């Protein structure tokens, strides 16, 4: 037994090296998902972000069919990239509302004029209150809320071409 | 290229929220708020607490903590509200659960293992 026990420190070292190598090979996913998925949308009421379009409140999401909520900002660079894909999703019949994080009306209007405006309602969230209430941790993110006000799905980061199919499927599933 | 980046690359042009960088007038409430802020993780710079982080979202979280405590909420309620949204990772005080008990047990276990390994050397022998 004691002959074998001299290999214990070597085994401990090997286990340590294996653990480090594994973590280097598969780095942790640092995204913090919203834990509100599957739960009712929290209460919030946001003023209009741009003149001419209504603001967004949780009450708007608790009736009618499912809606997509896009958490974006005019200063958010990846939001520029996902704008055409939001337009495509809108063209497929999905109603999309938006929450504009830390934004001025003029900047939002300029963004929409340049990148297109697929949104029905846009709520202004200058202090990220609604964003925090939803469990969103950055821009852009997209939520799907069903007709009963339950958050059904969260997509973190910009929508990429490969994500459109899943988003449409999740929206169908929420109907 | 840009598509591969994580969200929130840029900062807004709006100033920080009012209560992000201003202390509450009541010193007891401010002390409670500050203690809580030092135990909440910044969601953007996840190695820092929101008390330390310069990220805008951290500023908005500080404003949220201060406003809620000024409105009379207990710090534990505010912490719980944030954990409901972001999970245990947002708090620097993880609860003792089946998944996290090694955090507490490991130091003690390692100490005991070390003592056992040195068991012969720690005992004074009579010459």
Q: Can you walk through the features of this model?
A:
Helices cover 37% and strands 17% of the residues of chain A. Chain A has six helices and five strands. In chain A, a hairpin with a 5-residue loop joins β4 and β5 (151-156). Chain A is elongated and about 80 Å long. The longest helix of chain B is centred in the last third of the chain and has 17 residues, at 101-117. Chain B is mostly helical and 127 residues long. Chain B has a domain at 16-94: Cytochrome C biogenesis protein (Helicase, Ruva Protein, domain 3), CATH 1.10.8. In chain B, α1 (27-37) packs across α2 (56-70). The mean pLDDT of chain B is 86. Chain B has five helices and no strands. At the A-B interface, α3 and α5 of A face α2 and α3 of B.
Order of H and E elements of chain B: HHHHH
Distance between the termini of chain B: 73 Å
Strand count of chain B? 0
Helix fraction of chain B, binned, reads 40-55%
User: In CATH terms, what is the architecture of the domain at 16-94 in chain B?
Assistant: Orthogonal Bundle
For CATH, the homologous superfamily of the domain at 16-94 in chain B is named as: Cytochrome C biogenesis protein
Strand neighbour order, sheet with most strands of chain A: 3-2-1-4-5
Radius of gyration of chain B: 21 Å
Distance between the termini of chain A: 65 Å
Say how many strands of chain A there are.
5
Q: What is the CATH class name of the domain at 16-94 in chain B? A: Mainly Alpha
How much is the radius of gyration of chain A in Å? 22 Å
Please name the CATH topology of the domain at 58-173 in chain A.
Glutaredoxin
Question: What is the general shape of chain B?
Answer: elongated
The DSSP helix count of chain A reads 6
